[in-house]
Amino acid sequence: LSSLNKTDGQIDYFALGFLINRHWATSFGLTPSSKVNYTLMSSVEDPVDGTINTYFNGNGGLSKIYWGNAFRLTKRLSVGINSAFVFGPINKTTTKAFIDNKNYININYLNSKMEINEKVYSFMFNYGVQYTQPLGKDYSLTLGAVFENKTKLNTTVDTLAGTTILPKQMDASYYEGIHTNEIINTIIDTSGAKGKIDYPSS
């Protein structure tokens, strides 16, 4: 029987494994699969619209609840299979700010924001094989391989987009919180749209 867990106010990682018999071992747990965390900005100078800043923000990530099984088929050969449920949110926000356009009385009508919130949920499987070859009395060579099918993960997507009002002073502190601005005039508002994203094979 073995277990491992890591916490920092919430459970980030948990695993428990044990032997069923001489030829069968099993384990289950919760593990992180990916993490999204970025804040970026690009700026362009347009001869008509002036300085246009685009801010990109993303957060969230995916976790796995898994159940793994390993079977010893012969003295040297073992195979395994893992089944997992992948879940979690991925949130992306893009804000476009027209900083100093002199051709419009109210440039706030130009400033825009789009929020895309994805909820991911899907089952997936991977497989493994391991072979051990003795090399004399004291040494052995172990070879293994793991295969994971390319999986399309199910998602539900909520999208909200429209115009937003930005403060006159665009300082460094505002750069960090720009994506908290409320949308004033809604252009797109959809919820529960079905989609898929690729989970790469290994």
Question: What do these coordinates show?
Answer:
This protein has 202 residues and is mostly beta strands. It has one helix at residues 172-177, and strands spanning 2-7, 11-21, 24-46, 50-72, 77-98, 112-135, 139-148, 151-164, 183-199. Strands 1, 2, 3, 4, 5, 6, 7, 8 and 9 form a nine-stranded antiparallel beta sheet that branches. A hairpin with a 3-residue loop joins strand 6 and strand 7. The longest helix is centred in the last third of the chain and has 6 residues, at 172-177. The protein is elongated, with a radius of gyration of 25 Å. The two termini are 28 Å apart. Residues 1-10 have low confidence and may be disordered.
Compressed to H and E, one letter per element, the order equals: EEEEEEEEHE
Spatial separation of the terminal alpha carbons: 28 Å
The helix-and-strand class reads mainly beta
Q: Uncertain regions: pLDDT < 50 for 5+ in a row?
A: 1-10
Helix content: under 10%
- Taken as a percent bin, the fraction of beta residues is over 45%
Major beta sheet, specifics? 9 strands, antiparallel
Assembly context of the chains: single chain
Rg over C-alpha atoms, rounded to the nearest angstrom: 25 Å
Q: Sum up the overall morphology in one term.
A: elongated
On the 0 to 100 scale, the average pLDDT is 82
Total count of helical runs of at least 4 residues: 1
Question: How many strands appear in the DSSP assignment?
Answer: 9
